[in-house]
Amino acid sequence: MTGKERVLATLNHQKTDRVPWIPFTGVHAGALKGYSATEVLTDSQKLYESLMEAYKLYQPDALPVVFDLQIEAEILGCKLVWADEAPPSVADHPLEETTDLPCECLMPTRESGRIPFVLDVMSKMKASVGDDIALYGLICGPFTLASHLRGNNLFMDMILDEDYVHKLMEFTTTVSLKMVDLYLEAGMDVIAVVDPLVSQISPEHFTELCHESFKTVYDYIRAKGAKSSFFVCGNATRQLEVMCKTGPDSISIDENVDMKSAKEITDSYNIAIGGNIPLTTLMLHGTQQENMKFVVNMLDTLSHDNLIIAPGCDMPYAVPADNSIGIAQAILETDAVREMVKNYEAPKEDIHVELPDYASLERPLVEAFTLDSATCAACTYMMGAMNVAKEHFGDRIDLVEYKFTEKENIARCVKMGVKNLPCVYVNGELKWSSIIPSREELFKTIEGLL
Amino acid sequence: MEMSELLNSISEKLQQGKMKDVVALCEQAVAEGNSASDILNALLGGMSVIGVKFKNNEVFVPEVLIAARAMNGGLNVIKSLLVEQGVESKGKVIIGTVKGDLHDIGKNLVSMMMTGAGFEVLDLGVDVPTEKYIAAVEENNPDILCMSALLTTTMPNMKLVIQALEEKGLRDKVKVMVGGAPVTDRFAEEIGADKYSADAASAADEAKKLVEA
């Protein structure tokens, strides 16, 4: 199965060969190429390059193209504040002091705001990888969009002025439908309606003031022959049931919701569920081993039908690439990674590892530590680069690969203090981790040691 | 001491978010000679029930905001009486969302719960630069400084504020509390904050413990 077939089968609630993996790379993709969040959210070439790097390193089954919930708000007149390592934030709310509606003339078109940029990246991605992986077009959900426009007063309106909330939601729902049209025309396979604020209102309020909007959007996407997903953030445990009733093909949740009990609810509606790898504590600050262990555990405790493995929301900019590579490997080669995690945690007294005497080597020694260069794409590329060097330098250097699939090599990693894979040590010193060096940089480093 | 029926209904109307009723009942309570501190306790009691329900996912942001609005209506009625009768606040709290971060819902909820716990709260707003926190601490001599961040990229600014407090010799004079979606206990410890709270109601509880300690 291709990634695309796997994702679409899951969203059609059919059997797959394995659970699909969708890294919500967001601005983090830019980090892989050294671009800032602002660059990848405004420059289509830079975002395209970044997404292609994520595609190469993380072996995803699908990718969201642009992860920015402020695109619609910007078009409707909200001022944005930009950041280097995070998506922009809405700085003001045009309807904060008035219960008017925005002008119909602001409805998004192909030319509005950053839509030309979004459509350009979508078409580039569609042409490059559109046959292989599913592409997600993300729109800001109608409730969160209403809050961008009205600010926190929206919450008070829900009690004091329901009529206005109904009218505003009608407007933002129309915006959502326009966005669906634009993104489906650009070839998106799945439309994700991202509405983090849904977790902040009662299920009763959701049903009364939001149900109709979301149902309209999901029905529309279905009528157009595409698939839908409902992304929420925060503790949406209490809202999950009413979210299901709006009829999306899938729901995506974050670490604040217990995945097992959530899946029982979504399963009862035959809706696929995605999630919920913790973003900060695990992906950003955890080790590669901890990330792999978490995902193996997810796969071992959850039923695999109607399941997607994904981060809880868009990944923080500075997530170490090794952690996502480890997650991908845990999904692609679950049995091997389960063994790795077990052996990593087991006492290693019985395995004796002799480290080379790095101070008195006869020639430069290149040691590549990989999860398994046969199955992990990032490892394959890393090993590929090293093999090119070996071919070039021949007998003047030594090259060894240590695969983490062997107990002895795990013991060696522990002894050497190797934290993340794939990585390369030259003469006992860590030179490259996850990010594969260019041929020029690699050759220069080795030549410096000859 | 058992609360009178009137004071009880102040608490109940507050929980229902009925501002006009709360104001009218507070006025009646004043006219009937209830002490400002008894009326205050009725208001804070109602807000505390909302806090617990919010923490338990029984009520959500709209209900809290509307209850807080009712509480503020009531507090306005007894404001001058509180001063007259020498009723002191639990302590002074300064709160704000750190620089580069515009998220304010969580910060506002904490601010409301702190008010509801009897603190005097000075809200510095969002995108608050380090210097502004320091100036506010120097000027107001608060018991507690609260910082909020919703982004992993703005979290580190909390540490900068704590460092600035240390440099200015203010760190021992004020307790520091932090919160926000990506913030954890471990992070709070790493940056030298006194307390992390996961939700607004717990933040108010912890604040009470900090000033009583």
Automatic annotation (TrEMBL), chain A:
Organism: Anaerotalea alkaliphila
UniProt feature coiled coil, ranges: none
GO MF annotations in UniProt: uroporphyrinogen decarboxylase activity
Name of protein: Uroporphyrinogen decarboxylase
Lineage summary: Bacteria, Bacillati, Bacillota, Clostridia, Eubacteriales
Uroporphyrinogen decarboxylase (URO-D) domain ranges (all copies): 3-324
Gene3D superfamilies: 3.20.20.210, Glutaredoxin
GO biological process annotation, one example: porphyrin-containing compound biosynthetic process
